[in-house]
Amino acid sequence: MPDHAEPPHASRGADDAVRPGPSRRPVEAVLLDFHGTLAQVEEPRDWVLAAAAACGVTLERMRATALADRLLTAGRAGGPLPTRVPPRLTELWADRDLYPHAHRGAYTGLAETVDAGIEGFAEALYERVLVPEGWVPYPDTAPTLAALRAGGVRVGVVSNIGFDIRPHFEAWGLAGLVDAFVLSYEVGRCKPDPGIFLRACGMLGVDPERTLMVGDTPADAGAVAAGCAVLVLPAAEAGRANGLGAVLDLAGIEKQS
After folding, report:
1. 150 and 194 share a domain?
2. 229 found inside a domain
3. Which class for 65: exposed (0-12), middle (13-18), buried (19 or more C-beta within 10 A)?
4. CA distances from 87 to 83, 99, 147 (A)
5. Which residue in 213, 150, 197, 210 sits closest to 176, CA to CA?
6. How many domains, in total, are found in the chain?
7. For 19-34, how does the pLDDT look when each residue is reduced to its tens digit (9 = 90+)?
8. How far out from the chain centre does Cα 225 lie?
9. N or C, where is the chain less crowded by C-beta within 10 Å?
10. Are 100 and 186 found together in one domain?
11. pLDDT tier, 9 (very low <50, low <70, confident <90, very high otherwise)
């Protein structure tokens, strides 16, 4: 290059002084995971106390805490994965998000490995996951869904789950803010299979290229294979903010006051 030549990256004039930033794909729809993204299961000790009460038993709080620790290790619906799945439950466990009977059978079977000395306790524990009272929506859930609706962005809830969560949204007053529920046991596919995300986009009538998937696990990131953009949030305990409001920034929507 001659000594007087201008390097390729040098500014050539006022028109080049301000360069546009990277383009952002427009977001016409947002797909949201349920557990760990929109809501969290109730605190473990409260879960145990409520289930025991349903069986007519009042537990001391210390005993309830000890039982909760053992049940979490065994495996809780909406909680951490079990440390070990007994051989008799392996088939049910593999199919838990595809069939309601498998979901119930797997989690009641895991709970039965913990001897609480309470008749019907395993079933009562499972019943808590089926009712809205057994869950706590995150603080940002309602305002984020409302802002998306106000901004004209379609919303789908995509969940690996073995039971219907629509009654939960009805009880929380949020059902009218969701355009489609795409539940693994209803569509026969589980995340990270791209098929479940493509099904969700089809139900919403949007192109995957204009869709954002939001979740909290690597399974949710499977939406990339379907052509969607993905936001993975950090896990948060019940009642604590989990950063869901970041969805609005990515969708170009201002938060409502």
Report:
1. yes
2. yes
3. middle
4. 13, 19, 47
5. 150
6. 2
7. 444 456 789 999 999 9
8. 18
9. C
10. no
11. very low
